[in-house]
């Protein structure tokens, strides 16, 4: 595989001629580059007017490689051919070099260019590109590649330091200016290269006229990145990391037809793929396609969060941490996750989460300017007071994990630190279950405090200034994050609204709806292969009253005929052909039901919702008044439910001790949930805590 390198534009705040005088002092040897042993001039050519000069050198390098490898290769030094082309009129120096040693096995090619700064003629720019292609090397190809990249990265780091060293040396000698080439200097003999003189001739000393410093813009006319800009706005990157950023950015400019993402956003995708440019490019392109398809770039301008989110979503931005990162606070323990999912649906929740991330990117960019240093991620503070098992309501968690898939695919490397406060007693159990799925680098971002431990030394004040600690955490700063509470069921969406929901950012919803008529139940067939599997369900009765049953049969029901009322054949006998494994559960309109059943036998299980016939009074055999009124409210003898089911392996099922094996007829948000270890991805817990 060919390794490539592209440098950013490095700027010397000195005139071109003075930089060239410093550059020539690197030859024939340079004590600042220990591996640069010697160089000999092979050929030299100068134009009559002295404006153009070409020098070809043969340079010897003592590469820092294992002695065994040198013995196998049979060489002590590696030789390179360097060709320098100076144009004093245009004020440019082009350098090309390639390896002479092992040229049939390894191909190394490098080009460099010194030129005048495009917006300040008293400054000099330097750019560098290189490629390495190892065809074969006695079976040590991988080793040679690592050595070459290490040596090259080291020399790149020293490159600017060396020029600055010789510029200072010139200054110490009193040389602060070198005259430019002019046509009148044609009669003068061209200056000989410094490397061929025992002592370089001293140029005339002239007074330097002060110039106004004009920094190279981040996006200059030629769309090149300045090294100082990278350090100021993107952070300290290694030369190879800078190269990956520049190459990926250049590729986007040449091939991508849409909006080019900002440099810090490109850098996040590179970091997420350990600066593997091919993987980062694929990752980024998928995200750019997604952003264009769903107009995410205009989300903050065109989308406004529904009122229910403004009232019940217990999260919001709150100043910044000690590192200048934007601070997002989430009072997870006070949030009604189920109510928000039921009232809004996954689409609105997803858009709200995306708007949080888009706002986070905007705040990072703003803080970078305010604090004068790169800030590319934010800090999240999660208050778990009030957290209980209702927050692990399985359909809600599953919806959130699907939101997380979208977020992880499009906002990598945006969470810098996660502060978890007032973790309840149930949290250590949950953490023990989830932590094996979280990689070590992600765990380093977690700081967990139980009870009031966050108030002591090493607590919250180490990461957030005391003046901005929220009042609900014992601080004095008023926090505008909503206090939350239960979302009224009157705000829940109806089945019809779910069915007519706009196009989603994913393809389907986790809920299904079913209509139930008198004499025509809705039945769901589930085949169980392994005994002790767990069938879980969650459903809401949207209209009418229903009876919920679970049956088991060893044989598969035949597909229902057009005139049949369900999966259970009328010829079947209860207790012989099939059996009831749970007692019937009557569910009233507006109720929510969650539960689970641990199967005892393999075979076929039938979940049935049927129309509830009103019961007669035992004494008079007449219907009760309440049932008659309820019947009048149900038009056409039709009921409607929204349901979600899932089958788990027994090893993946966890439940509270108080939760039995039967249906759990609880209807409020305090209902006991079902927790599966198969659902979360490696970092899903982190994101599920962060987003909802």
Automatic annotation (TrEMBL):
This is SEC14 like lipid binding 1. GO terms for molecular function: RIG-I binding. SMART domains: CRAL_TRIO_N, SEC14. Transmembrane segments: none annotated. One of its GO terms (cellular component) is cytosol. It comes from the Eukaryota. GO terms for biological process: negative regulation of RIG-I signaling pathway. InterPro entries: CRAL-TRIO_dom, CRAL-TRIO_dom_sf, CRAL/TRIO_N_dom, CRAL/TRIO_N_dom_sf, GOLD_dom, GOLD_dom_sf, PRELI/MSF1_dom, SEC14/CRAL-TRIO_domain. It comes from Scophthalmus maximus (Turbot). Pfam families: CRAL_TRIO (PF00650), CRAL_TRIO_N (PF03765), PRELI (PF04707). Residues 507-647 form the GOLD domain. Residues 305-481 form the CRAL-TRIO domain. Residues 3-175 form the PRELI/MSF1 domain.
